[in-house]
Amino acid sequence: MNSVEAGHLDLTYLLSQREKRSLNFSKKLYKAMFKKPADEDEDLVVFLGDDQSNRRTWSASSRRIPTLRMNTGKLWHVKSRRWYIGRERLAMQGFPVTPDAALAMGVPILPVRDQKRAASVSGNAMHLSSISVIEFVALACHKSVG
């Protein structure tokens, strides 16, 4: 098992062989599709939990972050050569994990003390505003019997 090296900003060396193959396949496919290196795209994110040869889970086409899931696959930001940590994944879903976000929402900061737990929660978590809309639609569609 690899360990983190101090001062080493490129975390590619920590990826498993399967993750490296998936990333390399994505980069080659990106180059073929968009005629430029994947490393130049500021917004390119690849989900390394899927086999990219049969399921492309990336932001290249949609320009949106791939759907978060609870499995252990890494959400890889290609240009910075690192994956998103649990706290960042929660922030992507609108949770107030930074002082600025909490202030804008008028709520306290959501403390993230355990990165692994935060990553697993973010996979299937929904933001409160999404849940509110779902509940509103469910209540609007409900017909009282009586």
Strand content of the residues, in percent? 5-15%
Helix content range = 25-40%
By secondary-structure content and strand pairing, the structural class works out as mainly alpha
Strand order of the largest sheet: 1-2-3
What separation lies between the terminal Cα atoms? 64 Å
Q: Count up the helices.
A: 5
**3D shape:** globular
Tags for this entry?
single chain; 146 residues; mainly alpha; three-stranded antiparallel sheet; 5 helices; 3 strands; 5% strand; globular
Describe this structure in words.
This protein is mainly α and 146 residues long. It has one domain. Helix content is 38%, strand content 5%. A 3-stranded antiparallel β-sheet has the order 1-2-3, with no helix packed on it. The longest helix is centred in the N-terminal third of the chain and has 18 residues, at 17-34. The chain is globular, with a radius of gyration of 18 Å. The mean pLDDT is 84.
Question: Secondary-structure blueprint of this entry?
Answer:
Layout: H1 17-34, E1 45-47, E2 75-77, E3 82-83, H2 86-92, H3 99-105, H4 115-124, H5 128-141
Antiparallel strand pairs: 1-2, 2-3
In short:
Helices cover about 40% and strands about 5% of the residues.
